[in-house]
Amino acid sequence: xxxxxxxxxxxxxxxxxxxxxxxxxxxxxxxxxxxxxxxxxxxxxxxxxxxxxxxxxxxxxxxxxxxxxxxxxxxxxxxxxxxxxxxxxxxxxxxxxxxxxxxxxxxxxxxxxxxxxxxxxxxxxxxxxxxxxxxxxxxxxxxxxxxxxxxxxxxxxxxxxxxxxxxxxxxxxxxxxxxxxxxxxxxxxxxxxxxxxxxxxxxxxxxxxxxxxxxxxxxxxxxxxxxxxxxxxxxxxxxxxxxxxxxxxxxxxxxxxxxxxxxxxxxxxxxxxxxxxxxxxxxxxxxxxxxxxxxxxxxxxxxxxxxxxxxxxxxxxxxxxxxxxxxxxxxxxxxxxxxxxxxxxxxxxxxxxxxxxxxxxxxxxxxxxxxxxxxxxxxxxxxxxxxxxxxxxxxxxxxxxxxxxxxxxxxxxxxx
Length: 416
What we know:
The protein is an alpha/beta fold. Helix content is about 40%, strand content about 15%. It has helices at about 5-30, 35-55, 60-70, 95-100, 115-125, 145-150, 210-225, 235-240, 245-260, 280, 320, 340-345, 350-365, 405-410; strands spanning about 100-105, 130-135, 160-165, 170, 175, 180, 200, 225-230, 265-270, 285-290, 325-330, 370-375, 390-395. α5 links the parallel β1 (about 100-105) and β2 (about 130-135). α7 packs parallel to α9 (about 245-260). The two termini are about 20 Å apart.
């Protein structure tokens, strides 16, 4: 945001100009010996002209006025949390999310352990939507850290995404503000899922009231920080009773209701796997999943990826696509050597850019979104290129992959 567009900053600059002119005048007046009365009249004329120019360039329409609002003073009355704090979330364009979206996994959570370089890469990029920017995999969100990182991202009109993970740590420490106590994460677990993602972990379920309380708080705090896109990870794990999904309906209604109160737009998505119930899928603004590439970078055309015994859904297939509001696709990652991101990182640079270019053009031409890879997890013994750590991919030119220019060129090709 241009600081000169804020009223307080603009008026400061105006006062500086008038002061400079007055001082310069008196120096000039001594040299040419003009009368003080004529000089004061001249000062008045120039000051009036500067004020008129201020009025003339000051925006009159509501879209521009939003940029002039001093958001640093806005505070959530209930939580005392500063709202927006220097970042003004704007309108959501689903078209831009589809055509200018990038996976920046955990950039607001410090993933990759080189946040400074990651932020610089985003600032150089043509990305508008940062998918999964705030992570919650086995850890509650750190909003203080997220706010500090958002301050360093200089791109205007960014849409930040948050991942609501299907993995929690039963021993996590996070304050429940409404109850004036710590959340009890062990009371959020789905039966029979203890240690499923590692020691002290489980899959949370909407059926547990403590989990619904947690979601209500963190999604509201995320909106207070400027987050606008929310993705539920593997929704079929979190929503046990899909045929009677009152718990999910309550969660979605609260999120959308809070967004309305804040006069901000949000988008809610889910990893829905092979769910084909249209009424269920259309509760979400988008569904999201991986593409399932082979070593040659090509995709299949069936409803399920043939590399797995169970159905790993290929969401662009009409079986799913025609029943959802929007479809977002990306190179999936699980930390295994056969996942999309690990296969991608083992390719040569030319093959990598060719692959994402093909996928981007193929899916966006059918009104689906393909999210470009900027940051994501890969297998630590994968081989091929990587970012700040062997287990983490980064497109940055500062590391081995150096894909950012190629990715930016592809995004630039879309004028939407």
